[in-house]
Amino acid sequence: MPVAGVLTAKHSLAVLLLVLISGSPPACYAAQNITAILAAYPDLGEFSSQLTSARLADDIYNRSDGPVTVLAVNDTAMASVKTMPREAIWGHLSLHVLLDCYYDDANLQRLPLGGSTLVSTMFHDAGGGAPGVYGMVRIVKFSDASGVGFLPMAGDVAGAGVGKAAFFVKSVYGAPYNISVLQVSGVMSTVTPDAA
Predict the structure, then answer these.
(1) Taking CA atoms, which of 143, 144, 147, 154 is between 20 and 30 Å from 40?
(2) Interacting residues of 173 by C-beta distance below 8 A, sequence separation 6+
(3) Dihedral (Cα; 72, 104, 191, 39), 10-degree rounding
(4) Higher-confidence position of 193 and 182
């Protein structure tokens, strides 16, 4: 005879079955409304607006298969792309959406001096037309301790050219291992600075 308040094996199995059939299991990565996150930061308003215009905000919201790190740019730095056609804005800002990785200030500081890591971006992931590392971003912690840079790859092999880079300014928002927003110094491009 079972003791009051203690579940028997039969009852435990019934409770487990109810939990399993009551609905779908929770997703590992919750949808994140990047425009709602950025709304708390007025100096990132133009970046948020352009993410929405280029439909990248929807892409971020609909991602459910891994963490995302968004590299936000302040309104002053966004002036350089504000008047571009939507496709060009998408090309630039999709480099600012790092896929399947979560970086915050602490994670960036753990990179070894002179070390780097190569990450996929919405630009690289979306097209299938991006050969090799083209459109990926190399995160580098400079050996002279001057900071962390984000260097978009402008070639189809790892040793190929680097486009217009951006540098870490500060952490803005984090929901650990789901979404992180970092502010960077400017808008990145796969076009090399001399060709821009």
Answers:
(1) 147
(2) 37, 40, 41, 179, 180, 181
(3) -10
(4) 182
Q: Which of 86, 52, 26, 71 minimizes the C-alpha distance to 168?
A: 71
Tokens at 167, concatenated: 């540098």
Tokens of 82: 């504000």
H-helix segments, the chain: 9-21, 34-38, 45-53, 56-62, 75-78, 86-93, 105-109, 122-127
Task: List, in sequence order, every residue forming a beta bridge with 139; answer none if it has no partner.
Answer: 117, 150
Q: How confident is the model at residue 28 (pLDDT cuts 50, 70, 90)?
A: very low
| pLDDT band, residue 132 (cuts 50/70/90) | low
CA distance 130 to 193: 20
Q: Determine phi and psi for 132, rounding to 5 degrees.
A: 50, -125
- Over residues 61-82, the mean pLDDT reads 92
Arithmetic mean of pLDDT, 129-154: 81
Reference 136, options 168, 163, 112, 166; nearest CA is 163
pLDDT at 87 over 80: yes
